[in-house]
Amino acid sequence: MKVRREKAERLADEELMPLIGEKDAAAFEVFYDRHGGAAYSLAYRIVGERAAAEDVTQEAFVSIWRSGARYDRARGSVRSWMLGIVRNRAIDLLRSRSSRAPKLGFDDEAVLEQRPADEFTDTEALRRETAREVRGALDELPGEQSKVIELAYFGGFSQSEIATMVGVPLGTVKGRMRLGLEKIRGRLAEGLA
Amino acid sequence: MNEREHEMRRDELSAYLLGVLDPGEVAGLEQHLAGCEECRTELEWLRPAAQLLPETVQRVEPPKELRTRIMDEVSAGAASKRSGVRLGWRRMPVLRPLAGVAVVALLAAAVAGYAISDNGGSGGGDATTVAFGHAPGVTAKLVRDENTGTLRLANVHQLPPSKVLQAWVRRGKRIESAQTLFVPNRDGTATAVLDDMHDVNAVMVTTEPSGGSDYPTSDPIVSMAVPQ
After folding, report:
1. Boundaries of CATH 1.10.1740.10 in chain A?
2. Which of A142, A159, B41, B54 could bond to A42 as cystine, CB 3.0-4.6 Å?
3. Does the interface predicted TM-score (ipTM) exceed 0.95?
4. Cβ-count burial of A142 within 10 angstroms (0-12 exposed, 13-18 middle, 19+ buried)?
5. Residues of chain A contacting B6 with CB distance shorter than 8 Å
6. Could you give the CA distance from residue B118 to residue A54 in angstroms, rounded to a whole number?
7. Which CATH class is domain A1-98?
8. What are A85-142's pLDDT values in tens digits?
9. pLDDT digit string (tens) for A56-72?
């Protein structure tokens, strides 16, 4: 197992997927260790409760394992694909509850800091730098634009629901969503230039 | 192209990437995208912005027990796959097997949305009720080749990005994932390869969350008996 684990650690995510599809537990373990933190963080961001976030993360990873890791390169990176699965399951959980209260900020004192620096890899460092760019872009957006994006992505609310919640016409919500995402993309392009 | 519709669809690109359009809107937008290069270009340009949103959340370390639980379940899953452990969904609709031909044309017409009458065993029998639903027109064809099968669906509605089609097989009374997730093409066709048709009595397809499910969570859009 140790040898297989060491070998799996040297593989890119895209190379791990076929192994996971063949039920290679060592490959799956590496996959979880790479992305489990991001998955749990996203789930917690959406559902706002640790126990529920654990359930969402567990369901997402186990579904990937049991479904044979049917990853489609055309839909983006492995990590984006996996986080999309987590996001959808978290939103499904929110929608299954009778009342939804989107968690729009982090004020939980239990929120922990990032992993120690000695665990960083080049890939992780680049990812964090890119995340900082996007987070910066999100922070710089006019409040009404960042709000509709957060309500949509992290709250799973439809544009009509957001229009009702915010008290503006549907067309305004669509416009804010579009402008906001365009600005984030523009900032990202500048940062990567 | 109608300029007004073009602008309307263009306004939907962000919501599409953020995963908040309803299935009807997704279908309309994807139809527009098929014929609008400008919107396709903008969609691909915007995509990284949406895909990186989850990276912006503050990192919260998961408990170590979560890793242990997941790996335990993974190990148990591998074991149950080997031994054929029964899943919770005990019965599926069984349709009368057709004559033993290699190509089974399907009954799926109008099977979409049918309900399963299963009282959780309280009735003590295996009776199943099939009701025809609200999404008629779905057809399916299964082509068998030794122990593999190719399932081809037609007239399938487009799915939102958060959903996939998942194939299931029944062996005796056991329902098992066929380990196959797939999505419809723009023309409503969808194809799944079933790697192991050994002892399979029936095949069905459900709509599941991305990544698939451990057991069916929705009514089948199609179900077919497989002649032995």
Report:
1. 1-98
2. B54
3. no
4. exposed
5. none
6. 31
7. mainly alpha
8. 999 999 988 887 745 444 444 333 333 333 333 344 566 666 667 777 788 888 889 9
9. 999 999 988 887 667 77
Running DSSP on this structure, what letter comes out for residue B53? G
Classify domain A120-193 at the CATH class level.
Answer: mainly alpha
- Residue in this structure with the two tokens 């999100």, named with its chain if needed: A138
**Global confidence as pTM:** 0.61
Structure tokens that stand for B31 in this block: 């139809």
Compute the nearest-CA separation of A149 from chain B (Å). Answer: 8
- Non-local CB neighbours of A127 within 8 Å, separated by 6+ positions: B55
Query: Rg of chain B over CA atoms, in angstroms?
Result: 21
Cα B202 from Cα A58, distance rounded (Å): 30
Q: Please, where in chain A does CATH 1.10.10.10 lie?
A: 120-193
What are the CA-CA distances from residue A31 to residues A15, A173, B55, B90 (Å)? Answer: 10, 37, 17, 32
Confirm or reject contact between A113 and chain B (CB < 8 A): yes
